[in-house]
User: Fold this.
Amino acid sequence: MITKDKRKNKFLIILILISIILGISLLAPYIAPNDPYKTDLQNSLKAPSKEFFLGTDALGRCVFSRGVYGASRTIFSSLILVSLMFIFGSFIGIVSGYIGGLFDNIIMRIVDVFLAFPSLVLAIAIAGVLGGGMLNAMLAIGAIGWTKYARLARSEVLEIKEETFIKAARLSGNSSMYIIFKHIMPNVLSTLIVTASLDIGTTIMEMAALSFLGLSSPLPIPEWGAMMSEGKSMLQFAPWITIAPGVAIFIVVILFNLLGDAVHDMLDPKQKEY
Assistant:
């Protein structure tokens, strides 16, 4: 059985690794050896070398430099999006579960409609209607992603709103908003936080997918998904263009999934005693 100290150490190690990646992405202007936007056809499709660590693309741009710059857009856009979905969806779900009645029925029918479709397919459709751009891509994924938090929060609230301490708070004359923020939220947040931490990796892949399809930031702005798309036609003779951002996505998604598992282990009440 994993002890409490081991779970804490696992969490800290993963957090340090993620912090290093986030730090590299933030310091991209100082770390990138070349201008990610500068084209040089004389260096087109050069294999990885000392001058170009991960080679160059069809326009002679440094793949490593573009990958470092693209990290901030891909990762931070996903972190912001998950945070917004978590806040909005959780609040709507908590209020819906506590108030009940017509408001709850309306919210849950809206949630059912969104959950009836595959999330990525619906996101692609919404992004196609809204047009390209990072903001529209985030709106497309966020329009669907908040529903999982709303449904989960509602189910958690339904379990505890009839507890004795909630009834006592009502009898004391406390307002609904006071009860929600003071008594209900602290009891449901741990489950929602675990869900959010596990959702980061999925959101990164969804953002990369929209970018791959040309539904995110316009070229030549570097994004991992767009970089993979640019290199797909040259995979046989210049695989580094696609492999480099693909490996980056794989590593980051794995790390955030491991972080989610570590957060789950730390917040799981069944394991807190060990």
User: Anything to note?
Assistant: The radius of gyration is 22 Å.
